[in-house]
Design a protein that fits this description.
The protein is an alpha+beta fold. The protein is 17% helix and 27% strand. Keywords: Apoplast, Disulfide bond, Manganese, Metal-binding, Secreted, Signal.
């Protein structure tokens, strides 16, 4: 009986878990990869890697869209590397808009803190889902789908967005079409817009060609 009892006690005793990795703080000095940054050595990790203070700071909305996004993505918040989460603060001034855009790497959950936001997304079946949101309201935008947020009130709007990826990515549709060197004839062909309209939008957004 003694050997069996001894084995039982040994089974109950805590043992070091060498198979579990608690975290993988991103080593931002190394190249980013599709699977994320390589892990920083644990000996170099500090509490600062797990703390981000930027979400309490209003973004600068003095720009064309009158909006600002302050990302707590892996590139600014290395502790989220490999954890499948990140966040961002969104500030939208009156008459401001976060134009149609996508996050190819993750879904978004938007929570309104201040003001009024009219938001929506378009499914791959071209169905449209829109809603007016006030403080405390939340809306989900599935991964990869076109979506937008508009300040629909008279005061500044503030929201916090959380993402299902440490690097959800961001591509604003209008900028992708008109803020680069994609030749105007090609843009006209794929958008059905006339030459004058394409040239006008390129001029506004800083594109060429």
């Amino acid at each position: 009986m003694a050997p069996i009892f001894l084995c039982f006690l040994l089974f109950l005793l805590p043992t070091p878990n060498t198979a579990t990795q608690d975290f993988c703080v991103g080593d931002l000095t190394a190249p980013d990869t599709p699977s994320g940054y390589p892990c920083k050595k644990v000996s170099a990790v500090t509490v600062d890697d797990f703390v981000f203070s930027g979400l309490g700071v209003p973004g600068n909305t003095s720009n064309l869209i009158k909006a600002a996004v302050t990302p707590a993505f892996v590139s600014t918040f290395p502790g989220v590397n490999g954890l499948g989460i990140s966040a961002a603060r969104i500030d939208i001034a009156p008459d401001g808009v976060v134009p149609l855009h996508t996050h190819p790497g993750g879904s978004e959950l938007l929570v309104v803190l201040e003001g009024c936001i009219y938001a929506g997304f378009i499914s791959t079946a071209n169905d449209v889902y829109t809603q007016s949101l006030g403080p405390g309201d939340a809306m989900l935008f599935p991964q990869g789908l076109l979506h937008f947020q508009i300040n629909s009130g008279d005061t500044a709007a503030v929201a916090i967005a959380s993402f299902s990826s440490p690097a959800p990515g961001l591509q604003i549709t209008a900028f992708a079409l008109f803020a680069n060197s994609l030749p105007s004839p090609l843009v006209e062909k794929v958008t059905f817009l006339d030459d004058d309209e394409v040239k006008k939008l390129k001029a506004v957004l800083g594109g060429s060609g």
